[in-house]
Model the fold of this input.
Amino acid sequence: MTTLFTRPAWAALAAAAAMNASVALAAQTSITVGMQLEPPNLDPTGGAAAAIDEVVYANVFEGLTRYQADGSVAPALAKSWVISDDGLVYTFSLHGGVTFHDGSAMDAEDVKFSLDRARAEESTNAQKRLFTGIASVDVVDPLTVKITLSNPDGGFITNLAWGDAVIVAPESIEAAKTAPVGTGPFTFSRWVQGDRVELARNPDYWGRPVALETATFKFISDPTAAFAAMMAGDIDAFPNYPAPETLPQFEADPRFRVIVGSTEGETILSTNNKADHLSDVRIRQAIAHAIDRQAIIDGAMFGYGTPIGTHFAPHHPDYVDLTSGSAHDPARARALLKEAGAENLTLSLKLPPPAYARRGGEIIAAQLREVGIGTEIENLEWAQWLEQVFRGKDYDLTIVSHTEPMDIGIYANPDYYFQYDSAAFQGMIGDLKLATDPAERTRLMKAAQRKVAGDYVNGFLFQLARTGVSNAKISGLWENAPTQANDLTGVSWSD
Done:
């Protein structure tokens, strides 16, 4: 078995000074965090948008395990677990004394409810694939739950750290989209739609109390407005700052700290592999060779970003640099289009709101035009993008960052929005799920990267950098983004 833990004028003046000092002190226990996108709802188990987790992950909701700032996975609601010798049975010991924000106890029944709900046939969980290997979830006692897998899964503990795997209660889950109830160190206070979400410190938190008393997530979609809000002090921190061209101004101002790190965000020119023309690999390859990645990084991201040639983070030890296989080669792109009989092709290019998509889309449209591919650009709001592109698959091309960690497995789902259907790739991911030997997992991950690159499933652009700005007195914000989160549990102000 394997175990893991795991009066006088002067008096009036003094009183006023004391009051001002206390106000200043109180202000240092609150924070206003800027976000470019507003979440469509606040239930991480029922939505695909990264903005949901950016508000609630680790703050409002918790899972059995969780990601830490360095990318490692640590115990959360589970204080320890034991894995059977055959790798099929995980027995979790839960922390005692944990309550949901409504005062109800969190116990093994809630774990069973959450995981059974996530893997149910009618589940709307955006990452339902994380739970398909679960054969059963059994309550041993109120603080012990046993999860049995159909096959060994070397990534199961990591799967449980995703926002999609947080523990919820049957009594409150129906209201979670607008009034989330979790076990985290912050409680939900208010959502002023179109403007902000407000959180408050949970006085009954089971774990280490947080330093902040209140936190506000303020939604500012326009990069120019984001810059103005930071400069004016209306925003204390903008962890995913949308105007990288202005970062030098913050770097020169001692009031601010610029934070540059990496994310799990593979930014891709996502391609509908079943759309007219795009089912032909020669056309997808032509598109890949038409793209000048560095020009997109320089023009859309002001130099922030790392070129990628497959759907895998460059900072991962198993990354394979495959950029040469889709190097910028307009002549090759034209030749492939001629060979495919598609020399006068026009494709739809539907762009969500982030700056990398809107700016990058204009650059890519110009690059495609140079090889004879026209584009019809349509700018969509986030809800429209989710409805038309992600769910409706009504598109030819789009640009988006996939910020989920280690998510190359999405290519094994033929119903996923880019509709790539490869039995060979599905077999690789099936083998990867079963593999527990590190060397074998490395071999399979490298093979999977080469397969999606060689099939030119999407146009692989760059790994999204995490460029953030904060008040210089704030500490504890994540530098890198091992998952899509604005974790405030370790954030505090200095004097």
